[in-house]
Model the fold of this input.
Amino acid sequence: MASQPPPFGYGPQGQPAPGVPPPPTAPPGFGSPPPPPITTVGYSGGGPTPPKRSMTGLWVALGAVVIAALVAGGIVLIGKGGSNDSSDTTAETRAPRRTTTTTESETSTTERETTTEPTTSTSEPETTTATTAYTPPDGAIDLTHGVYLPLPEGWTRTDTPEDEVVEISNDTGLKVDAQALQRPPGEDPALAMQEYVDLFDSDFTAVGYSPATLRGTLGDESQLRNIGLYYRAIGDDYAGFDGAVYLLQRNDGLTVLLDYYAERGKDSMGLPDDDYSALIDSVLAAPALDDPVEFPEFAPFRVTSVHPSLIVDGLIGYALPPGWVDASAGGAAITNNATDETVDAIKISAQPDAAAAAAAAQADFAARYPGFTFEAPTEADAWQDLQRRDILVSAAADPAIDGRPRSGAITVFYDPASQNALTYSRFWYADATSDGSEPNPDATSFIFDTYTDSFDTIP
Done:
C-alpha cells in the first residue's frame, strides 16, 4: 500500500508566547519533506493546472474574462516548439478551475458521470501496454491517460462539466484538485511545478513556498517519483489558503498533479490511505505514453514568485507579509513593518547540543539588539529529529536606546545530526497595544509558517 505523506506542514508548533496575554499560535503548516502527521492537507503529486484562490478566504469567481480564459474549457500550455492545439499532448498543462462563490447558484454542484471503464483519447499514443493489471474501484473518476481518482466515502465531487480539472472535497473544508497530463519523459520537475504555481501566484497579496523535495519513489526501478512543495497564500486581510502541490512523475512522461488546499487554520488529514493507494496503483498500471527514460538525480529546488522572500541559508527562507520590508544586515535575514515589530532569522553552525545553540542564539540577539533581558530557555515540540528551545525576551524603556519597552521571543531549532541550528526571533514595542500583546500576530504567523515549511533538517 502506498502511504500518503503527512498533511500540510510541520504542525502543531506555533510561535512561542511572549508578552501578556500570549499571542495565538501559528496555524499548523505545510513543510517541505514530510514531517509527522499534523493538521491540514495530504500528499500527492501534481503538474500544471493551478487553482485560483481568493483574497478573502473563500473561492470566488475570477471575472468573466479570466474565467473564460482560464476555467471554462481550460488552457493547454504547450512546451517550446509546440502549438496551442489541444491535440498536441507533448506538454499538457491545464489552467485553474477555482470558480466557487458564496452564492447558492454558483456553489451548486453539477452531477457528472463517473466511470470505472477506461476511456480512449485520439491524442494519446496508440498503446495498451500497462505496467500491471488494474481494475478501477467503483465510482472512480477518470482523469484520462488511464489514471483514476477514487471518490472517498463522505467526499463530494465539486467540479463542473466545463472544468478541465477534477475537484473533490470533504466536510472539513479540504479540497483536492487532480489532473493527469502527458509531459516529456524525464522532464525537469521544476518546469511543470513552475508552470503550475505561475497560474495563481500573482492572484494573492503574498505567497510563500517551501522548497520542492523528493517525497519518494515507487514501482519497478523507481519508475514513479513524487515531488512536492507546500505553500501559504494570503490576501491583505491575511485570510487565504494553506496548500500542497504534488507532482507524480512516471518515467514515460505520465504526470499527475494533485493540489490539496484549505482555508488557513482548517484541520484536515488528506485522502484516506486506501484511496490514495488506489490512485497510485492506477498511475503505475496506466498505458505507456512514450519510451521510458531513467530519471536524473533529483536536487531540491525553489519555484520563483512575484512575491518577495528572504533566504536564511541555502533553500531555507521565509516570505514577507504585506507591507513588511527587507531589513537584512550582518548575515541575518531581517524584516520589519516599519512601525512596531521586527523578525530576525539566522543560521548557527557547529553547536554540540541544543542548549549551546540556544546560548549562541541569545548572544547573537543581544549583540544586535541591546537592552534585552532573557528568560531561561524552555523545551518545545519540533518535528522529525529536530530539537526546539524557546527564550522569552523583554526590554524596559531605555532613553539611551529608543525610550520604549519591548517584548519578544527567540525560537531555536537544533539538528543533532548536523549540529547546526536555525533561529527565529521576533520582538515588538510593548506599548503598541493596550495590554502589551503582539501587534501583528497574523503577519508573524505567516512568516513563521513559511520559514518552518522550508526545512525538516538543518544542513
Summary: Confidence is low (pLDDT under 50) at residues 19-90, 95-131. The chain has two domains: 64-285, 322-439. The helical segments are 64-71, 104-107, 189-198, 273-285, 354-368, 441-452.
